[in-house]
Design a protein that fits this description.
Number of helices: 10
Strand content: 5-15%
Helix content: 40-55%
Radius of gyration: 18 Å
Order of helices and strands: HHHHEHHHEEEHHH
Largest sheet: 2 strands, parallel
Number of strands: 4
Number of domains: 2
Length: 193
């Protein structure tokens, strides 16, 4: 088994990610709140002012409709009778847990903006992930060979397989709700439905 195969197996294990998440929470909750991995940029900048000033910061953004559909598929993949996409989107809008599948932190805007201005040094578009990460990591001392795990293989989301067109899944109502929920990202990065 190659190191890439080993890492691919490791990153697919829920126990691995649960351990990583719990370790991060334990270490940084006192400075960044209950969900340090999703802390707003302003909180990170306040908690680590020297690092915020001196370190190269980047984030990944994704077309909100494509992201919402991917999240929906991921959250409902094991459900026998999943709610429809419209019901999921309405739950996002209204802050309902919807049988525990609606993420609490579905808005990423505050994670890379301060006072509604992009506060990171580089923005990578998910649509061009490998190239964007290569550009971002070129500014750091991180050596990266371009390998990425395929956590959602078989869900129509992987880059090396069949691609779905998210537009075909959304009703007019659901598309409009997502457009409203993520209006700032859509405007800033010129995303279109």
């Amino acid at each position: 088994m190659s190191i890439g195969d080993f890492l691919s197996v490791l990153v697919r294990k829920r126990s691995f990610w649960r351990t990583v998440s719990n370790s991060i929470k334990k270490r940084y909750a006192d400075r960044l709140g209950r969900s340090p991995a999703h802390a707003p940029a302003a909180a990170v900048a306040a908690a680590f002012p020297d690092e915020w000033r001196d370190y190269f910061k980047f984030c990944v953004v994704r077309n909100p409709w494509d992201k919402t559909l991917s999240d929906y598929f991921w959250k409902t993949k094991r459900m026998q009778n999943p709610p429809g996409l419209d019901e999921y989107v309405d739950a996002l809008e209204n802050g309902h847990a919807l049988r525990g599948i609606v993420p609490k932190n579905h808005r990423n805007w505050e994670m890379y903006t301060i006072h509604d201005k992009v506060a990171v040094d580089h923005v990578v578009r998910f649509e061009d992930l490998v190239s964007g990460l290569s550009q971002a990591l070129a500014h750091t001392s991180v050596n990266w060979d371009g390998w990425l795990p395929h956590m959602k293989k078989g869900m129509g989301t992987e880059k090396d397989g069949p691609q779905r067109d998210y537009r075909g899944y959304f009703s007019g109502h659901a598309a409009q709700v997502v457009g409203s929920l993520y209006e700032k990202e859509i405007h800033e990065f010129e995303y279109k439905f």
